[in-house]
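Allow me, if you will, to draw on your knowledge of protein folds for a short while. The matter concerns a single protein, recorded as an amino acid sequence and a row of backbone structure tokens. Could you please explain, in whatever detail you think fit, how the structure tokens follow from the sequence? I remain grateful for any guidance, and I place the record below:

…
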Amino acid sequence: MKKGIALLVSCMLLFVLAACGENQKESQGDSSAISDTGVAPEAELVIKGTNFQFDQEEYRLKKGVPVKITFENEDGNHGVMIPALGLQLDRKNNSTVVTPDEAGEFEVSCSIMCGAGHSKMISKLIVEE
């Protein structure tokens, strides 16, 4: 009886690990490839996060131009959120392709509670015509 339970638990663990590994393979891709949105990026933006700050005070994109946005977590545990683009990236989901359809200035903030300076971890995205 104990051997049967141990065998069942082992098989379940193997299925879970196999499923996790498959997702990891799918998320690794070529930066010039077409994304799951079906649009090939024409530009690329890399946002880097360190303890309580992003690498730039502002980032610039062009309206209507598909861009691959990649988040690199350099120090600490951070994410990036841009509500105007419906975008949230972190260590597990670190890039996507979006096409800004509205010009203006939008807030970029950390999406993971990272400590005492979390509320000050803000930058700006400027989408130009």
Helices lie at 2-27. Residues 107 and 124 are 5 Å apart (CA to CA). Confidence is low (pLDDT under 50) at residues 20-35.
